[in-house]
Amino acid sequence: MASLSESQCSDDALTNRRRVRHSKVKTGCITCRIRRVKCDEAKPKCLRCHKYGAECGGYPPQRSKKSVDHIKTLRQNRILVPKIQYGDRYLLMPTISLYEGELERNYFNIFINQIAKDIFPYFNCDDWSRIIGQACVNHPGIRHTAIAIGALGKTYEIARSSNSAKTGERNVMNIEKVLGSAVRLQETSSEKFEIQANAHHRQALEHYDKAIRCMRKDVEYGNQDIRTSLIICMVIICFEAIHGNYKGAAAQLQTGLAMIQDFQSQAQRKERHPQGFSSPCPDIVEDFLVQSFGRMEIQSMSVFDPRPVEIHHMLKNEGKEVIAAMPNPLQSIEQARNYLDLVTRRVMHFNGCIHVPRATPTGSASMSSTRPILLLLPTNNNGDHNPIPWIELKVPPSRAQSTHSSQQLQREKNDLLAELVAWTDASNEILLSAIKGNHQDAISALTLRIAAMSTKISLLSAFFTNESAYDTLFPQFRRIVQYASQIFDLQNHKEFLNRDSLPCSSTPKLNFSFELALIPALYTVVIKCRHRPTRYKALALLRSYPHREGVWDSVACSGLGAWVIALEEEGARQFHLAAHAIMSPSPSILSSNLSTTSPTNQSSNSSSPASPSHVTSFNSYYNIRSNDQQINTLNYSDIPEEVRVRKAKMRFDLLKRTANLFCLQMDISTEKYVEKTGTFKW
Which residues form the Zn(2)-C6 fungal-type domain (predicted)? Predict the structure, then answer.
């Protein structure tokens, strides 16, 4: 990466690092001229090509003076044609010479014409289409990754075709049958599907391997600038996330975030270009790339953020000056999105500062104790499965009093709330107008409203010390479900309208989004909203939307959510029976579906004596239906605080399509919190 010193920066941004201009080389072998390197012009083949193992293309025949004069005459008399538009020149498709065969070209066309657009379904993706189209032409490593993703698209298409032939399902992404070292298609309706899926999947892995080797070679020879490195990061993250290797995607994401932070840290007057908002030098790295990694940072913080709390302290104030100068009203969807992203990052860094491990409580207490229930929670259980930091209880019991009495923290929280209110006011006009516009603008506007609701929930719950406090957030939960329902309707209508305009040939849909939008928000409602109709509606939406946003998988999230609902409703039934000492038949909706092994005594992680750890085989829980008439027969109207689930989390394997589920819940018989575990396969 070029060094960005202060002498090269203006007050507003860094000036361009321009290469020294030379006259165009008109001699040399064909290969060296294409590579734009100096050729030694040795005959019959140049020594430079021989040295680097490249095939020398030879030398074009010299033109006579007569032919040169003739060309000049033709140029003087040529007919002018319309000038190509700026954006269009980057969308030229590579010629057949860039491919080793027709199959590679087909894979690339699948990526560039379909997948590259589908992975950004919620907002305009013109900038991405331009950047990735140009990069694929200029960089073999990026092109091979694009081809690999296109091959994955064909693999998924065949998996869905085989599933449709057997079950009639259309959109479910059958990962188990197409990914991993052992591709299993024994249950498909035809052996032909197995052969085809294996072939396409093998091509995807082979091209991905070629891409990695090309990229390593570029790094070794110093041929990779920061812009290229960031694009490479994005396509690798895309491939790994689609393929189900979320750990590989997370590692690449952290690499990209480090590069962006290093790039922006060298800019003069950095406060005008906070991370993820704008590029200090857009001629070197476009705003789109900086903003994309800013959004991926939000995604990282929503699931697993390996950075220490000191990093969050350093970044939580970034962007205050820019937000303070936010125009009102905002002029476009993109502008509204960038400012909301900036507020959201500040909120999540603020949460990262107060979300620290809980201290182990001493002893236990009965349900009638006046001490906060939070103090009864054991700790150190499965510490590597972090709860979701934007909604989970963040304040440790040992620090609850000092945190709540901290004027500094309260002031920071109020400042962030004020920024969110200011954004809501500034964006209201443009969002209302967009919702009344075309399908894509309406989807974008509703997505921003969901993001704003999620950010508000995260901030308002920052100092919650019990689960009942989430009941105050019901208005936000209800709006999330309302907006998500509208988005699904718009997407279905848009797909219906576009169906006739698509080619008759198959068009793979990966059901994958590069950015977060709906799944985390709906998951939050399922886990934290105890208003039954709203909760079940959110669960139904997740199930009707088999999709993945980054590493957030809707099927896995709905599985964990259904498990939590089952535990809480069964716990509420037992709690009310114990409280009223009434022996009556169980009205639980799970009575016919629950499959739980006998509790086994295992050592608890708390300092209290061993307590039961409930191990549940989960697949039966997933059979909860949002339209089950038995829901309305429950004879209790709420979920008591004592039986509400805490620290719900999972360790998932997207390749094997399995998840291990974990949570804490009070055992009514012992009045102690115990860890409960389950397994879920899909």
Answer: 28-56
pLDDT of residue 655: 74
- CA-nearest of 601, 677, 610, 620 to 645 is 677
Phi, psi for residue 629 in degrees, rounded to 5: -65, -20
Give 218's Cβ-side CA count (13 Å radius).
18
Beta-carbon contacts of residue 519 (< 8 Å; ≥ 6 apart): 542, 545, 547, 548, 549, 552, 553, 554, 557
DSSP tag of 383: T
**What is the sign of the dihedral through the CA atoms of 597, 602, 605 and 610?**
positive
- List the structure tokens of 572: 């509420």
The pairing of strands 611-617 and 600-602 is antiparallel
User: What distance lies between CA 20 and its chain's CA centroid?
Assistant: 40
75 pLDDT tier (thresholds 50, 70, 90): very low
Beta strands across the sheet bearing 658-667: 600-602, 611-617, 672-681, 658-667, 646-653
The region of weakest confidence among 112-121, 145-154, 231-240, 387-396 is 387-396
Q: Which residues contact 568 (CB under 8 A, 6 or more apart)?
A: 530, 639, 643, 644, 645, 665
Task: Please give the Cα distance from 373 to 520 (Å, whole number).
Answer: 27
pLDDT one-digit tens code per residue, 245-294? 888 888 899 899 989 988 888 876 666 788 788 999 999 999 999 999 99
What span, in angstroms and rounded, lies between the C-alpha atoms of 612 and 485? 40
Query: Is the per-residue pLDDT at 509 higher than 80?
Result: no
CA triplet 92, 93, 94: central angle to 5 degrees?
Answer: 120
Q: What is the pTM of this model?
A: 0.74
pLDDT digits (tens, 9 = 90+) for 28-61: 887 777 666 778 888 777 877 766 666 677 776 6
pLDDT at 610 exceeding the cut of 50:
no
Task: Work out whether the CA dihedral 107, 110, 113, 115 comes out positive or negative.
Answer: negative
- Residue owning tokens 């620090």: 399
From CA 569, how far away is CA 588, in angstroms rounded?
7
